Amino acid sequence: MKLKGLVEANGYLSYQRSVPTDLRDHPAFKGRKLYKKKLGAKLQTEEEIHKAWLEHHRAFESLISNLRKVNLPLIKARELAIEARNLLKAHGFNKGDRSPNPFFTNENNRNIENLTDHKLDQTGLLDEAREFYNKRDSGEIDVNEDVPSHIQVADKAWNLLNTPKDEFKNQTILLSDCWDMYAEKKELDVQDRQLRKTFHRWNFFFNFVGDCVLTNEEIHDRLDRYVTYKEQCRKDAVKAGKKVTPSSSTIHKEINIACAIINQAARLHRLPIKIIKPDIQDTTPKERNIKPSRNNGYRRISSKYPLSLLQELERISDLDNGSTSCIASELQRMEKNSTFPDADIPVIKVMGKVKTKNRQRTIPLVYKVDRIRELINTIAPESKYILGAVADKTESNISKQLKNILEKVNPKATAYSFRHAFKNNAQTNDIDNQDIAYLGGWSGYSLRVNDTMMIYGKKGLETPETALKLQRTMRRINKHLLQSESTESNVIRLPA
Fold this sequence. Notes:
The protein is mostly helical.
């Protein structure tokens, strides 16, 4: 059968086509010059072969057609660059001939520019371009008239002449290149849960807007297009009587992520891109309680509710904030070598991956220390984590399990309510704000503590005197638990 792209090798049929030159370095082909798909080993009749061939043929033709539509600006830019290079070569020039050489003196570079300009005047390479722009400036040509293609080529040739030679490789940076540059520069961990969320948001943005050359015009066009699409989705949801989504804050977040990734690539390659973010129509914000803050006078109070003393007594678990001021995820990641229940002053050390640098801290243990020691020794002795297999669960899974337990005493409570309860208990017992910040891992300014005091004070946290003071402080904060402590175990096990 003579079908375009149908190839037989070693008794197997496959569909093979050369990737068009203008799309060869597109990410879809990963640098390959040949598009190749096996038709399958069970094809027997000509009808089966034709059907399999037709399926792959249509897929390839559709892919090429769509890529050319989406990447039209990219293709045009490359074609323009090729024509400009050919124009320079025809007139005896090379790329970068007019650009300054960093190893030459300023005088030498000026001489090179003058010599190049003289040669340009002699060859007439830019004569038509000068004439066109002079007429447009004088009003002979309408400013809204499209620039003729041969003038565009001359403009590009002039840019190539003035581009430093070591930057030629970086002239065509694609939107598809941005994520890899961003991840490498930031040294991002691809296994990080928050990073995966960021990557998915970027990927959705990229897949929607398509690939392009990184220029001011192209980037702003795609940002505008994305915002228009998202706002239309919200309007459609309202018409259908559904939830008003996505909110303006969600769109802001997605645009901010895209801009941060694009800006990183632009900085790395010194591209003349200055992003002006699109206007986003605000959605009606939900009413929230507010209180003064350092930055803008007000800030949102968290929607997580603290537990009252009675509620905390009813549902306190051995290793949560009633004892340590930690959040569930910190305990989930905590390793056994960071716990010291047998020390003169039993403590745990919150180390490693934390939300902010302030979260790294040493916390005295005062409540059910014997039970904590027992759990560390008996729960999954082969695991390095104090909670054993629970460490393999996601943070959201642990939080949801704790929320289900806490809802029995307070329907509005969440896992974070323990941490709020810790701060409330500390403040009602007149604990110094600096000690609250140390024990809870809060920043100084959030509790109106001078940052300098925090820095100097933190250096003494490891001394026995300070540890003893913090132990007394923890006993005051948790006195309601200590007064009610019984020999009966109140531990609630979470499913691993």
